[in-house]
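Data card: per-record layout.
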Amino acid sequence: MRIIPRLDIKGPNLVKGIHFEGLRVLGKPEQFARYYYEQGADELMYMDVVASLYGRNSLLDIVERTSREIFIPLTVGGGLRSVDDIRAVLRAGADKVSINTAAIQRPQLIREASQCFGSSTIVVSIEAIRKPDGSYEAYVDYGRQRTGIDAVSWALQAVELGAGELIVTSINREGTGRGFDLELTRMIATAVPVPVIAAGGAGQLDHIQAVITEGKADAVAIASLLHYSAVRTGAGAGGEFHQEGNTEFLRNGQNSSMLQDVRLPEIKAFLQRHSIACRTE
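The structure for this 281-residue chain is written out next.
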């Protein structure tokens, strides 16, 4: 089981919000990435949260700096609209790319990219909101825009076109700490033959276990649970996360009362105690 810290980035900063909104600056993404690498992360995920909005990805410098120091797979997403965009990110040091908005706007991009770089390099990100009838609609532009497309049907199409992996985020649960949307994850994970990364909602260790056992996820992407814990406990490079970010709200207990203070080794030890295998060295 892979545990993947997800770092949402705006400009030079690591940011975090709730439902993809109300973003707060937490610090330098490279600092958090190095900390998670040292703590035993299996992979890392960088997402440029405004790239699709502005039609560009600004992570190349950050990716280059990170890849020189961190030797685990790195997935990069946000604003990748063409094979050339993907090639540039891979040359900068990414191992995989995540695409969402451009893939929905032009699904053949998935096929073109997988043929150029291999399906294992192409991750399709699905950001979904539950509708009143119980179905799920896919959204684009970091959860800003509706598409009218059924999320499960889109997952199947993306895999048929060559996606080697899917990351499935519940916008309803994202950043809340109330747990993953188990139904959404399970519906997609049981429908497709490729690995599914669950994202959006981790607040307790039990939530991670549940999305693996009940949601049938193949990997878990975690943001708030790890980031807020790192800031509150003063962990990481020199214990100075708070000097870079607007994090006073965390030390006052705001927006984080639902979240346990846990680190990556504790997550993995918890999973192993519940008979879920994961890498510990």
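Known properties of this structure: The CA atoms of residues 87 and 117 lie 8 Å apart. Residues 2-273 form a domain with the TIM Barrel fold (CATH 3.20.20.70).

See the next section for split statistics.
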